[in-house]
Amino acid sequence: MAGTTPNLYSFPDVDALAKQLRKYVIHCQNAAINRHDSFRVAVSGGSLPNTLAKALLAPSNGTPEDTVQFPKWDVFFADERAVPLDHPDSNYKLLKDELLDKIPADQGKPKVHTIDPNHANDDDPQELADLYQEELMRSFAAKDSVKLPVFDLIMLGCGPDGHTCSLFPDHELLRENASWVAAVSDSPKPPPKRITLTLPVVTHALNISFVATGSGKKDVLKRIFDSEEGRHLPSGLVNVGGGDKVSWFTDRPAVDGVSYPRRGSL
Ligand code: 6PG
Predict the structure, then answer these.
(1) Measured from the CA of 44, which atom of ligand 1 is nearest?
(2) What is the pLDDT of residues 38-95, one digit of tens each?
(3) 43, part of any domain
């Protein structure tokens, strides 16, 4: 994976994509465990938890390259909706239903860092964002001692408008460079109140992946990869800031008509 441009992978279907995603995530996991004995990962909502479950719940062949070490995982949310943890809009609930509850007991469980449910119903989500930033500081060291947290892997989705995390096109939050976690009160995608990692935190991660599948993504992926304008969309800004640390996992319909070169294999 050389160079400074993002890696675009495309697979015949979601099952084939999930197999390669598994390989990629375990590679990131093993490198992280070698470095600091844990794997600090952030995940988004949307379709990602379902694809991730396909990837991670598949049977292992028993080699270290194919073994998910869930007890070493620290799971954070790249973005989360300001709702209680059992609410149908909660990204935590989505991840729990799709993946966490289905991990076989003998594999152990990851440590999952949720938002503080006591502030999920606040009128202003700022306190919720501040508390989540403090949660990050407990894992990554205090904000005044490290400029930015270094996630081992941040896993993202991309909306049809080019949003990622809860960073939306033309939103002032795209210029936020002081906080690690920001509050959103006007998300165009419901629900309106959310918290999100900020762009500098996302692009500072060691590895950043996008999963984008289905023909509904082809127009935005063409903008992001093939046009100057698309480089300014939130997902395009992650590509620009993250360079070759960014890997896109797509299926064929999502990249139909995209000219940007695909990479053959991981
Ligand atoms: C959220 C998500 C959001 C999502 C994209 C892509 O909580 O709304 O984190 O950023 O990742 O909207 O969603 P799909 O994968 O479902 O297209």
Answers:
(1) 9
(2) 999 999 999 999 999 999 999 999 999 999 999 999 999 999 999 999 999 999 999 9
(3) yes
pTM value is 0.97
Report whether residue 47 contacts ligand 1, using a CB cutoff of 6 Å: yes
Let me know if residue 230 belongs to a domain.
yes
Residue closest via CA to ligand 1's atom 10 equals 165
The residue whose CB lies within 8 Å of the most ligand 1 atoms, and thus the one to mutate among 14, 189, 197, 198, is 189
**Cβ–Cβ < 8 Å for 187, 196:** no
Residues 45 and 241: their CA atoms lie apart, in Å, by 22
Domain-located, residue 150? yes
The SS3 assignment for 225 reads: helix
Q: Is 157 in the pocket of ligand 1 (CB under 6 A)?
A: yes
The closest-lying atom of ligand 1 relative to the alpha carbon of residue 166 is 10
Strand arrangement, sheet containing 181-184: 79-81, 194-197, 181-184
Q: Quick one: DSSP state of residue 170?
A: T
78 CA: nearest ligand 1 atom: 9
Peptide bond into 190 cis (omega under 30): no
**What is the distance in A from the centroid of ligand 1 to the CA of 144?**
31
Query: Of the candidates 246, 257, 232, which has an alpha carbon nearest to the alpha carbon of residue 9?
Result: 246
SS3 43: strand
DSSP-assigned letter for residue 262: P
Split into its structural domains, the chain has a count of 1
Domain span at residue 136?
7-58+68-255
pLDDT per position as a tens digit, 110-130: 999 999 999 999 999 999 999
CATH of the domain at 150: 3.40.50.1360
